[in-house]
Amino acid sequence: MGLQARSKQRKLQPCPVPSAFPHSPPPLGPRLRAAPSGLCPAHALTAYRHRQCACAVPGCGLGGSGLAVQRRAVPCRPLEQVATMPVQLLKFIKGKLETQLPSHLQREDLKQLQTGLDHSNKYFQDTFVVAGFKVAESPTAREDGRHACHLQVSEEAGSAIYICTQPSTSPFSETTSASVAPKYVYTPLNCLKDGTVVNLYGIVKFFKPPYISKGTDYCSVVTLVDQSNEKLTCTLFNGNLESLPKIYKNGDIVRFHRVKIREYNGQMQGITSAGFASLTFDGTVGAPVVPRASSKVYTFIDEEQKTVEELRIWAASNLSVPGPEAKLSDVKPMMFFDLTCQLVGKAKVDGSSFLLKVWDGTKCPYPTWKVPVEEKELEGDKALLHRLRNVTVDVLAYDNHVQLAKSLKIGSFLRIYSIHTKQASATNEDISSHIEFHLHGGTCYGRGIGILPENNADVEELKTFLECVDLTDSQNMENMSSLELGDTFDNYTDLESPLQRCQQLSATVLTDHQDMSNTMLKTVLNSRAPQQYRIRAKLRSFKPQKLYQSVKLHCSKCNTLQEVPDGDAFDLILQGCAATAPNPELQSMSWYESVMWTTQEEKERKITIHFVKHYEMLQRPENTLLMIEGGTLKEIWKLTRRFKCVIPVKSKEDDLELLDLSAPFLLQGNIKYYGCKKCSNPKSIENLSSLAEKREPSWEPTEIAQVLGIELLQYVFVMKFTLVDGTGALNAYLFDYEKFFQIPASEILTNSFLQQKMEMTMNTLSPPGRKLGQFAVLEGDKNGKDLLVCCYVCRVLEFSLHLGKNQK
């Protein structure tokens, strides 16, 4: 709440309302009026953040909510502050609290309150007195059941808050604490309603292990079912991995508290809300009912244990959860399965893949792929790795799984979900085919890595089994000296060298045309399209040498390419538009609110920002689309750091309109979106209101472009590769850049790290200063229109080559 608690036990002391509040409430409340001239841009942003009132903010008082701020934008003066706190009546009968507090609140001593900590689900129970307040009607009384009035306090009105703490040993404190034991109500899945926050039990039918979302939070997706046979898919976010449900397999039973229900496309969905917490239980009938909690403090009573056991029995009789789990001894080529195993070694392979050496005590019936890595890169007990060399397998984790794979501890027990086994044929006649194990990037089909605790039932069973595995054939390895051990590993790596050509690491795995043999480029060049080939070649050269020049803008409608305009051209367009003053009659319409101010520069300039509303209300900045008139390029970039989308506009007589399409029509983050001048037919800017009327506007660039009549230009890489194999040379043009570089072309111009990654990729394929014989080998399929090429060096890369229909 931001109160500076200076009170002592049994002593009243005034605690003034603070002059600034650390949290910005959701945008509910009065319209945002234009700021007077002379207000700087920083003040305008502050006015946006604080110009809202009567909204609940967690962590305030007994109800856990109720702090809000309302401010007027006034130049060169402190902004006015008004705090509103909801009033809820609590009854005490004989020292006991009759009215139950919200179940998610946890009591905390006032003396223990600290700044910088999250108090959103805390409350303190002491006596406090409010003086100098005003009473106003509560706009949310019908929805949240609180008192019909709010108390308004402000520093200007001379309001004060007095707090009197109670001794921790007082009977009042003890009896009240004991009486706040929550009683939860659980909602069946067939009784869920849109917009409600519920508690529920369910059986896991499908789940995605937690993964890092596009932001900084972890995300997990869970599909639940219960005795009503209704399904509910929940998308759960949290910045702390430990706060997400600890689900290990389908069939687990979960208890979710404070899940928000929303309807989307006719289906109910669940998302996390304030105070979300979970318990997870093994779904096996007869297994101990031991909760895996996402928080340190939780309640679990005997009645709920019966609920878990009833769900187990129902699931065993009515729910088939055919898990794809398998042991290494059961694997076959071209299958996907879950593996429970122990990690005995790991190594970095390259920037997009990571090696995990695992075993489960059984032996794969096929020869397995041994990934060639340098000895210094391999972590783990070398003696143990050598003893287990015949029963371990190498699993390559890609892309979004790499970060978690790096953090795994040697010896930990894992469940790896949706491993792909691929059979690869060796080109050397002395070497037989082998099995490769891949954990592909993404989260489709539940792909991911789960860390199992030592007390997990499956881990205990696996540990018992591993202890019984007979490894006597190589026991003498334990007594070898470190020198002998190093020699052994050097020889072991040498034995792998004949396989390296067919066992290269892959960023993506080709699953098509495995039965095709390689064709020489001479044959390809002498054929007519369409034909289908598989080729193996080397990259002799590529253009442009300056890789940033390969980024172009492509129109999929007229199939034209154009250069990406530089920032100076955009800035000149903005300067030209700033010469025309904004039209005051176009401010604060029904679907947007406006703020205008005049800069204090030598040459005065008027800037207007129009905030698009959602259901007559402003959204949080990170969800807000705004339009700006009169801003400079520097000012626009500042706005993109805070707001979801920024659209530069200018005033005409009766409406706002987009700038010339030589300028970007939309900026989102550090990406500028352009429209095709030839194919676009710009429509009224008012069409944005149709997107704002959606239940949850996403403000996706494609949707914005569509309603504005803009044909969106896509960022692409355009490069010319010259491929050779000793029989001929083939010029190939790279278009399928996402598969090849695994880098979004829209970000390469503004991200130095991605530029370095792209440069490293090309230096690997075509090393500067080396002879052609040392270059990387490329292999792939060609069908006349599209040529899918795999570059075998440290990983496999894919791209498409566009050829004319009748070209050779």
Automatic annotation (TrEMBL):
Alphabetical list of Pfam families matching this protein: POT1, POT1_C_insert, POT1PC
GO biological processes: regulation of telomere maintenance via telomerase; telomere capping
Subcellular localization: Chromosome, Telomere; Nucleus
Alphabetized SMART domains for the sequence: Telo_bind
Keyword Nucleus included in the entry's annotation: yes
Gene3D superfamilies documented for this protein: Nucleic acid-binding proteins
Keyword match Nucleus: yes
Domain Telomeric single stranded DNA binding POT1/Cdc13 per the UniProt entry, residue ranges: 186-316
InterPro entries referenced in this protein's UniProt entry, alphabetically: NA-bd_OB-fold, POT1, POT1_C_insert, POT1PC, Telomer_end-bd_POT1/Cdc13
GO molecular function: G-rich strand telomeric DNA binding; telomerase inhibitor activity
Keywords for the protein's UniProt record, in alphabetical order: Chromosome, DNA-binding, Nucleus, Telomere
Family the UniProt entry places it in: Belongs to the telombin family.
Designated name of the protein: Protection of telomeres protein 1
Organism listed in the record: Coturnix japonica (Japanese quail)
